[in-house]
Amino acid sequence: MDSEHPVLVTEPRPGVLLITLNRPHVRNAIDRPLAEAVDAALTRLETDPALTVGILTGAGGHFCSGMDLKTFPADGVPVVADRGLAGLTRARPGKPLIAAVEGAAVAGGFELALACDLITAADTAFFALPEVARGLIAAEGGAIRLPGRLPYHLAMEMLLTGMSLPAPQAARHGLVNQLTREGEALQAALTLADRVLAPSRDAVLVTKRIVRDTRGLDDTAAYTVQDPLSTPVFTTAAAAEGAHAFTEKRPPAWHR
Known about the structure:
Blueprint: E1 8-13, E2 15-21, H1 32-47, E3 51-58, E4 97-101, E5 104-106, H2 108-114, E6 118-122, E7 126-128, H3 142-149, H4 152-161, E8 165-166, H5 167-172, E9 178-180, H6 185-197, H7 201-214, H8 219-230, H9 237-247
Parallel strand pairs: 2-3, 3-4, 4-6, 5-7, 6-9
Antiparallel strand pairs: 1-2, 7-8
Helix pairs in contact: 3-4, 7-8
C-alpha cells in the first residue's frame, strides 16, 4: 500500500469517525486491501469509547462502484470473515453509521450504503444493483434489504433489470434521509451526526442495539430482548436530567 495514497483515510472528530474510501481512479471499487482497511476502521469505531457515530463516504466524487471486478474471480469477493463485504454488509455494528453518497453507489457500493443506518446523498447521485445483468447476485444484502426499503415492485425492477435509481427518487421513497446539492453530502452527514450526538450517549447506543437485536422478531420476543437493555437507561443521570429539562422547558445539559 502506498503510504502517500492510502486506500482508506480515517479522520476522528469529536464523537465521530469519518471513513473515506480512497480509490477514486476506480470509483472506490473494493479490492482485498480496501476491504481489510474498512474492516479495521469499523473495528476502531466499535471499540473506541470516544467515538459514537461513523460516517462512510468516498473520495473523488463517487461513493463506491462495488467490488473491483478486475480482481474477480482471481481474488474472490472481498469479504472479511463473517462480517461480509468490506467487513460491513453482514456485520452487526453497535454504533450508528451514516453513508454520505456522491455519484455512484452501485452493486456492493449500494449494499454498503444499505448496511448503514442513515443516508445523505447529492441530488446527482444514483443507486443501482446491476449484478443480475452480469450473471451475479446482489448477495451482500441487496436482495435481502432492498425490498423492505422501497416499494416491492420498484425494488424488484432494480434487482432484476439493473435499473438505476436517481437519488431524488430514492429520497421520495424514504431511502435517503437528506438530499443535498452536489458536493454537499458529506457536510450534511456531519450535521446529521451532530444531531445523533445531541442526546445522551447511552440513549443513542442502547436504541441502536435494540433496533439491531430485535429486527425480525415478533413483539413478544422483541420485548424480552429490549427490556434488559432499556430499563437500566431510565436510572442514569442523563435520563433524570432529560426528564427534568422537559418539565422545566429547557434544553438538557447532557453528561457525556
